[in-house]
């Protein structure tokens, strides 16, 4: 992690891994929006941080000026060994998220059907059964960690099911995903997580060639593009993306939502009493606690609204900050369960808009519904003891509740 104690000015020296930013980025964005709406830092290779809805969505939609092919992680790849790891093994990164058209177009088209509203609904019974089983495991004890014992356990198993890989490897997958995203500032852990995921899918492809099944990997192995099979490195990248994009993000969103209900009893009681509010409540949790910040690494110098952005620097796609912009959202820092107009960008904007949003929404709804049906009364054991992860994905990592 960066040297965090010496920050003097968030406008010129921010660090999104700083605990102050991780724990409460909202006040920092408010201040920046008024004084310097596009902040800059030299940390982590240099980046820019837009804080308004207009700037974040403008930049997300301008794929010519702000392409994804240069890199989408919020900090540079491992710095201790520039020759190691993904670039050689995954020359195209993890498409479609790391790709620009035309590679983006056809790789996205191949995965979308696996997360259509109908397909997502077909995973609902297994998700509901999983949520019930998790609650069975702790309900008698009168307490649980809503983040670690519940939220963290759900998306990884749903994704494993879609990919057709063993759900009993969930803890290993979760460890890799955390190494890649949450501990990205630690070169060794990031490398270990990346290699774990890649090696796993190299083996999974070999196995699925022998024993094809009714799953995404098998389908990708049989797909032909212009009469040619898809390169293994692209299939591995796509599968790695599904695992990485589908785990930490959704678990963080589930965790933040239930944490909100634990710390705001009036909202909890209202949602229990008025379950018809669930659709707007879920959109509101997604807006207020948007977990995902992406990046674009510039391939050439660009000037945007007077900001001299240099080739090699990153622009952080601050979707969470955009969702708190008072120009667009009335009372942005309040969670309003029945907020009527809510054009949030928690799932991004433009051609890279989240391909898994139907699935994520289903998982959010089922996990919150199941929790509230079984545990309508609960509260945080110690609000000050809750810990948050941040950086690329923000969400609670430990939040013990009693019931
Ligand atoms: C609450 C949960 C989630 C949130 C907040 C979220 C957020 C996002 C965001 C902001 C992007 C845009 C990235 C960019 O502009 O660079 C994105 C892309 C993507 N997400 Fe999600 N995501 C979530 C869940 C999922 C799930 C469950 C999956 C499926 C496994 C998934 C798969 C993807 C994929 C494949 C892309 C790349 C799409 C493209 O580049 O065309 N996400 N997500």
TrEMBL record:
SUPFAM superfamilies: Cytochrome P450 (SSF48264). The keyword Oxidoreductase applies. Keywords: Heme, Iron, Metal-binding, Monooxygenase, Oxidoreductase. PROSITE patterns: CYTOCHROME_P450 (PS00086). InterPro entries: Cyt_P450 (IPR001128), Cyt_P450_B (IPR002397), Cyt_P450_CS (IPR017972), Cyt_P450_sf (IPR036396). One of its GO terms (molecular function) is oxidoreductase activity, acting on paired donors, with incorporation or reduction of molecular oxygen. The keyword Amino-acid biosynthesis does not apply. Pfam families: p450. PANTHER family: P450, PUTATIVE (EUROFUNG)-RELATED. Belongs to the cytochrome P450 family. This is Unannotated protein. It comes from freshwater metagenome.
